[in-house]
Amino acid sequence: MTAEATPALVEGPAVDPGKSGPAAGRGPRAGTGTAYLRYAAGKLAGAAVSLLAVLVTSFFLFRLIPGDPVKFMTAGRPVSAQQLAAYRREFGLDLPMWRQFTDYCGKALTGDLGTSYQFRTPVIDKITEALPNTLLLTGTAFVLYTALGVLLGTRSAWRHGKLGDRVNTGLALTLYSIPAFWLGLLLIIVLSVGVGPVPGLFPTGGMESGGKGGLAYAADVAHHLVLPVVTLVAVEYGQTLLVTRSALLDEMGSDYLTTARAKGLRDDLVRRRHAVPNALLPTVTLIFVNLGRTVAGVILVETVFSWPGLGGLFYQALSVPDLPLVQGLFFVFAAAVILMNTLADVLYPLLDPRVGR
Predict the structure, then answer these.
(1) Which runs of consecutive H residues, i.e. helices, occur in 16-66?
(2) What is the C-alpha separation between 76 and 92, in angstroms, rounded?
(3) Which residue of 176, 199, 282, 319 has the fewest CB atoms within a 10 Å radius of its CB?
(4) Secondary structure percentages of the chain, helix, strand, coil, to 5
């Protein structure tokens, strides 16, 4: 084979003389915007299918719970069979299952999640009423445990194998394995009730003491907020720490970090400007998942501390069972996680162009 017969092999690919470096042989990617739109549309379609599956699941799942809501609502009162039948007609419980299902889906698609059996108010109103309390609790904890997890995870990875890394990792694993409700009860016993010489410093539950306004009210709410937030931060920060640490360890052997050090950059600059941004993609996924869970709150923690949020409302509705309220809350919880995951997927190609190709 002669050089004349194989000019491409000898000369190599044509390169635009106006370009240089690694991107010179690539050039602009034709149809990149269209490819991204197809990628985003696929993710949004998947989210829509998932929401539909949640809608169906929420209807049938909670009908497996034993108990008669009508009998619960009339407990302690003498009622006749005719009155029980009237209650069932009022709430649509006398209709065939397929009719209840179609009515539920039709109303849910218009934003009507039904009427609560025990509160006799629209489910969406009860959710709207409790949502700010949940966002205050879990939102505060989310910001704290995300920042703490990323900071300690970065430091542990950069000092891999040293005493600080072993202490941070061991403590994170220990706290992550502790049930949140058990830790909450322990904190109530020690810091609310008091043990021996340790006095009770914080309220045992609730969101406020009542009868206060202005700055006094804000301070009272913050006082009630301390123990549930500490509980959530303690059991949740370890997950972010471990994911951040693992991702950063994978990046630390990369050639671009060696090059950055060879150019004389300080170690902290190499970590902050080069290693950490490239290692944060798995952490971004976890942050969005946790952000979706923020709407749901932590049911057991809110129940333990009698916090008037969505988690406590779900536990209260489940004990009846208040089917419309349970179904509505379950759908909102699942929808929040699905939407946050979808948002993370859609943003991924903007953070890393390799995703979605």
Answers:
(1) 32-61
(2) 23
(3) 199
(4) 70, 0, 30
Q: Are 340 and 288 in contact (CB under 8 A)?
A: yes
Yes or no: say if 134 and 295 are a contact pair by the CB < 8 Å rule: yes
**DSSP codes joined into one string, 125-168:** HHHHHHHHHHHHHHHHHHHHHHHHHHHHHHHHHHTTTSHHHHHH
pLDDT at 278: 74
The answer to whether 118 and 317 are in contact (CB under 8 A) is yes
CB neighbours of residue 38 within 10 Å = 12
pLDDT tens figures, 23-78: 444 444 445 678 888 888 888 999 999 998 988 888 888 777 776 677 776 666 77
Measuring CA to CA, how many Å separate 78 from each of 2, 68, 83? Answer: 103, 16, 10
Helix intervals (H) in 159-210: 163-176, 180-187
For 276-287, give one letter per residue: b (16+ CB within 10 A) or e: bebbbeebbbbb
Rounded Cα distance between 275 and 252, Å, is 7
pLDDT digit string, tens, across residues 231-265: 999 998 998 999 988 888 887 767 777 777 777 77
295, 262 in Cβ contact below 8 A? no
Helix (H) or strand (E) holding 329: helix 323-351
Count the alpha carbons within 13 Å of 198 in the hemisphere toward its beta carbon: 11
